[in-house]
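HMA domain-containing protein, hydrothermal vent metagenome. Tokens?
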Amino acid sequence: MLKTILNIEGMTCDHCVSSVTKILENFSGVTEVTVSLAENTATVSYDELKTTPSEMSKAIENDGYTVKNR
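Tokens:
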């Protein structure tokens, strides 16, 4: 298992946190997700054989947010 921190711009409320959390939890291999509105981050534990931070970032961006430091 690996852990990554995604820096997400555009989250403004608890609904945004919920939306990003659901996107990330739907990835195969993701075992833990913590999204922080205050820090504008998502901390994700995942199986590197099943997904990548780049794939997760693209899905978040497809929902209208911006991910930095991919």
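The CA atoms of residues 22 and 44 lie 12 Å apart.
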